[in-house]
Amino acid sequence: MKNVIKLIVIILFLFSGTTVNAQNYKFGHINSQELLSMMPERDSAEVKIQQYAKDLEGELEIMNVEYNNKLNDYVEKRDNLTPLVKQTKEQELNEFQSRIQAFTTNAEKELQQQNAQLIQPIIMKAEKAIKDVAKENGFMYIFDLSRGSVIYFSEQSIDILPMVKKKLGLEE
């Protein structure tokens, strides 16, 4: 929504009747997702995130195995248990299941935090390079095609991806 409003403001400004030469404006575009996928830091961050997720999944699997073992043990013996022991075992199983659910919720939050912690500096580095290239080359606006906010851009709009790649040392 903000992007649509910005686009409308730009269009209104350009066609507002001011006698400014439209050729003075330099517009560019980039696909930031494509840029991020080329950055080597992203690969190492994704490896760390995948390893962290794998570690959490392993811990969850251990908890599930332990829970299933306790549940199977209870099911096998429940007919021979006294009501008090049966109630205690059921309560233990419910508490264990609650711990598994809490672990799952916390693991998802931790994974999101880990992702943000590792990916955010990469995004900031890419954004800084984009802004630096825009300033150095006199661009008025840079549109990000990966965010889906630009429906059309003309041939006069310059793809700054090659310049940003060069700025980041990603030239092939």
Structure notes:
By secondary structure, this protein is mostly helical. The chain has one domain. The chain is 69% helix and 6% strand. The protein is built from five helices and three strands. A three-stranded parallel sheet has the order 2-1-3. The longest helix has 54 residues, at 83-136. The model is unreliable at 17-22 (pLDDT under 50).
Which consecutive residue ranges, at least 5 long each, have pLDDT under 50? Answer: 17-22
Strand content: 5-15%
Q: How many H/I helices?
A: 5
Q: From N to C, what is the helix and strand string? A: HEHHHEEH
Q: Roughly what is the average pLDDT, rounded to an integer?
A: 86
Q: State the helicity in percent bands.
A: 55-70%
Brief overview:
The protein has 172 residues and is mainly alpha-helical.
Comma- or semicolon-separated keywords:
6% strand, 172 residues, mainly alpha, 3 strands, rod-shaped, single chain, 5 helices, three-stranded parallel beta sheet
Helix and strand layout, with pairings?
Elements (H helix, E strand, L loop, with lengths): L1 H13 L12 E4 L1 H7 L1 H38 L5 H54 L4 E4 L13 E2 L1 H7 L5
Parallel strand pairs: 1-2, 1-3
Helix pairs in contact: 3-4, 4-5
